[in-house]
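fyi for ur records
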Amino acid sequence: MTRKEFLFSASAAPVVALSAQTSEQKVQRKNRLKQGVCGGVFGRQMPFEERVKQAARLGAHCFDLQGQQNWPVLQKYGLVPTVVPGGGKLTDACNDKSLHAAILAQFKENIPAAKKAGAPNVITFSGNRRGKSDEEGMDNCVLVLKEAAKIAEDNGVNICMELLNSKVDHKDYQCDHSAWGAEVCKRVGSPRMKLLFDIYHMQIMEGDIIRNIRTHYQYIGHFHTAGNPGRHQFDDTQEMNYRGIAQAIVDLGYTGYLSHEYSPTTDDPLKTLDEMMRICDV
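which gave:
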């Protein structure tokens, strides 16, 4: 299931015992950085509950981008549902004033549901530019997000606007630089208005990842990872040092989640996920 389909359809590590749901062994992490997963890291063949079970075994804390129908399975294995539906669609969202009433209605429904499930974040988007200047798009986003932030504050849930690249994957998307997203958060003026800092996307658009994370840290509510180029697992063919990035995030005192959102090119996605989690387990 792609992100769009989800959002807009309803060295050997030591081991400890897992939960009563499985007799397999759980990989023990340092957990200075709470790691999670998105569904794509498991490839295409694995059933959903098996993905959740294996994520828990490998030491994940959360599972991103899942609708309410899947939350009981996550809770069964002790995983937090993170970055759950909020308001708007990827291409049609907060920068379009004609959609604001519908988007607010979605937030009014989805934010209390997230609170009830213990989900810390709901997701939103800028939407595509469609000819809007950066200033006009920002004004429109702030207008609706100031109202949505009141709901978020009442429920203790963050709204995370995702930073995406408009160069390769999401042509015309407006929230495509961290400074623009941070300015939206600043103008909304709520501690519940945050950014989903997707490291892969921001590497494509602006690079200088560690400096930009440090600069905009106060507005970051969640991270996604993937290697570049290609959005695959990060290895020697990729250009980013994820161990260094993870260390910089930990050094900032970050207490949220970092979830892996790459597409594996290997025949053993569980081994690959273990390796990616080990790299970020600083």
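Residues 164 and 176 are 5 Å apart (CA to CA). thats all i got for now
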